[in-house]
Structures are given as structure tokens and as C-alpha cells.
Write a structure and sequence with these properties.
Elements: E1 3-19, E2 22-36, E3 39-46, H1 55-63, H2 76-84, H3 91-109, H4 113-116, E4 124-125, E5 128-130, H5 135-144, E6 151-154, H6 160-170, E7 175-178, H7 186-197, E8 201-205, H8 213-220, E9 227-229, H9 236-240, E10 248-251, H10 253-256, H11 259-272, E11 275-278, H12 285-292, E12 300-301, E13 318-320, E14 323-325
Parallel strand pairs: 5-6, 6-7, 7-8, 8-9, 9-10, 10-11, 11-12
Antiparallel strand pairs: 1-2, 2-3, 4-14, 13-14
Length: about 350
């Protein structure tokens, strides 16, 4: 029998996090454990308020999950189909069960999950994210990220050029740009992209609102830099038409409902010629370790969500000089935590 337990938790950020349209200092999460024959699998739901899930919605959803009919954890398709149909939406809390189930399966098989998916384990060069802030704080964040080869810079406001100029006063490293839907005019967006091309920028993530499909179709045909769909691409069905509006997709486990769907999305993207970015929210080392298992499928890695929090209850893969180094442990690769010592925390 598979048993489910869960705990509400709050992640506290090391720094105030600002993007186009929101500011926060913490992130609500729910930590999940699945147990089968004394073996534990761990997962999490990370739920920035912008996306509509909360500890209340997650715990309500989990209270409705009944895994008693499922005797075999290897029957993942049936289990996760059942979970997906409990209620529409709720992608992050669905991801928490998916991640925990895959962790459990990997541990029962005594293999890391990348092997379970038929992928090689490899070192992953991740970017380091720097949010919108004052010039002095941006300079400080850039200096703190000196070990990272790539920086991800949040834009989407009226002072985008000032932010880039500030970054360039400190470093000439290649940049990933995330506009978080902040650019509203397609021609002005193109002007910014053409300027950013000369600033050693690699790509632009979600330049325009999810509703601006015609504008994105116009922009993707003219952009000199790859455009990546993030908020516009949630689950597998979104990959089918993504090529009309983007050159690449950003796959996040908290959007996709977990590893099973993320793998399907990445496989479909590769077949249709879309490039792949693996991204994250503010997350513990649990969800970051999960996403890293699919790293061999990605063109770009942005898995630094655990590096910006103060109270990570898990220990996963080490990050050295901006490189995630797989440890070869089974399942997600977590150093097994003491579940009983993790205290529920709701802000």
C-alpha cells in the first residue's frame, strides 16, 4: 500500500524578488512524502501567488487523494492519470505527487531517475537569476553571482536599458533575458530585442502577454534572438502550437504537473524543432533535483530556485561554479531527510 503524507511550508528568500508585475519575499509550498514498504519518495508543490495555487488549495486537493486502490507504485501511468482527474488545474500540487512517486520508483529500482527516463546523467550549467531592483542592489547581485557563467536578468519595465547598462558595468557575461510578459507593444519589443542582440544576450523569455498571440506571431518572425514561451506554455497540449509563436519552450515541473508530462513535452518539442529550457520557481532542492534529471534533454538550464532561499529542508546535488553536479544517488538524488524533523510552517 502507498501512503501519502504532507506538510505546509514557507520558503523564505534571501533577497526581495521583483519581476514585472509582482514583488515577494517568500513562497508557499507543500512538501509531500509517499511511502511504500518503508521506502520514502519526496515531492513538493511550489506556489508563487501569481499562479493561483496556495497552501489552502493544495492541502484541499491532497485531502481528496486516495491511493489505497493502488498496490503497485510502478503503475505510474494509472496513478498519475487518477491524480490528474481529481480536479482541473492545480498543476503544482499534482507535480508534488508526481515527483514523490518518481523518487519512490527510482529508489525501489536503485537507480537515478535520469536512467529511468533513458537519459544520461550530466553536469548542468545553470544560470543565476537577478530580479528587478535598484542599480546598487543589481550590482551587488551580479558580484555575488561571479561563479556563474550565465546570468538571467529580469526585465519588463520602463527602465530595461538602465538595468542592462548597470549589469554591463559589472560583467560582460552572456545574459538570458526574461521579460515576464512585460512588453505590451510589439514594435517597441522588437526594438528592445534588436538592441539586446548587441548586448551579448542569448534569448528572450516571454516578451509579451499570453493573450497577445497575433503580436507574438509577428514578433517571432522578425526577432534576431530566440524567443522562449514560459507562461504561454503550461502543459503538453501547449507544445503543439508553440512553434507559431516561439522558437523554444520553458518547461517547469510546477506548470507541467511533474516529470511525466515534462518528459512528454520535451520529447514533443525535440521532434518539432523547438529548443528546450528547463526552468523553476522558488523551490527546495527536492524539485530542483527532480527537474535536473531531465537536463540532458535541454538546451538551456535555469535551475537555481533553491539557491535563493534560506530554509531549504532538503539536500540535493551540489552546485559548484554554477554547475549542477549529479551525485548518482537513486531517485531524485536527495540525501534522505528526517521527515519527522521538518516542522510545518505557514506564513
Amino acid at each position: 500500500m502507498i501512503s501519502l503524507s504532507y506538510k505546509p511550508y514557507t520558503l523564505y528568500k534571501k533577497h526581495v524578488f521583483r519581476i514585472a508585475g509582482s514583488t515577494r519575499t517568500s513562497t508557499p509550498v507543500v512538501l509531500v512524502r509517499l511511502r511504500f514498504e518503508s521506502v520514502d519518495g519526496f515531492g513538493e508543490a511550489s506556489m508563487p501567488p501569481l499562479y493561483g495555487e496556495s497552501i489552502a488549495t493544495a492541502t484541499d486537493f491532497l485531502s481528496r487523494v486516495d491511493l489505497a486502490p493502488f498496490k503497485d507504485p510502478f503503475n505510474a501511468e494509472e496513478i498519475l492519470d487518477y491524480v490528474d482527474h481529481i480536479a482541473p488545474g492545480n498543476p503544482a500540487v499534482k507535480a508534488s505527487i508526481d515527483i514523490a512517486l518518481h523518487d519512490l520508483i527510482g529508489k525501489l529500482l536503485h537507480i537515478p531517475l535520469h536512467s529511468y527516463f533513458g537519459l544520461p546523467g550530466k553536469e548542468l550549467v545553470t544560470s543565476k537569476t537577478i530580479g528587478i531592483d535598484t542599480a546598487d542592489i543589481i550590482r551587488e547581485r551580479v558580484r555575488e553571482a561571479h561563479d556563474f557563467r550565465f546570468l538571467k536578468i529580469k526585465l519588463g519595465g520602463e527602465n530595461d536599458r538602465e538595468i542592462i547598462d548597470t549589469v554591463r558595468q559589472e560583467t560582460d557575461k552572456p545574459l538570458y533575458i526574461d521579460a515576464n510578459q512585460g512588453w505590451k507593444d510589439k514594435e517597441k519589443a522588437l526594438d528592445k530585442i534588436e538592441w539586446l542582440r548587441d548586448q551579448n544576450v542569448i534569448f528572450i523569455e516571454q516578451p509579451m502577454p499570453t493573450t497577445a498571440l497575433k503580436d507574438m506571431e509577428w514578433l517571432v518572425a522578425r526577432s534576431p534572438l530566440p524567443l522562449i514561451g514560459d507562461e504561454s506554455i503550461q502543459r503538453f497540449t501547449g507544445v503543439i502550437s508553440a512553434g507559431r509563436y516561439f522558437h523554444a519552450i520553458n518547461i517547469k515541473l510546477m506548470k507541467s504537473t511533474g516529470l511525466r508530462e515534462a518528459y512528454r513535452m520535451a520529447s514533443a518539442a525535440r521532434k518539432t524543432g523547438l529548443k528546450i529550457m528547463l526552468g523553476c520557481m522558488s523551490e527546495t532542492s527536492c524539485a530542483i533535483a527532480a527537474a535536473s534529471q531531465l537536463g540532458a534533454m535541454a538546451d538551456w538550464i535555469d535551475l537555481d530556485g533553491n539557491l535563493g532561499i534560506k530554509n531549504d529542508p532538503f539536500t540535493g546535488h551540489k552546485v559548484e561554479n554554477g554547475i549542477i553536479k549529479p551525485n548518482g544517488l537513486p531517485g531524485l538524488g536527495l540525501v534522505t531527510p528526517n521527515w519527522d524533523k521538518i516542522k510545518p510552517d505557514v506564513q
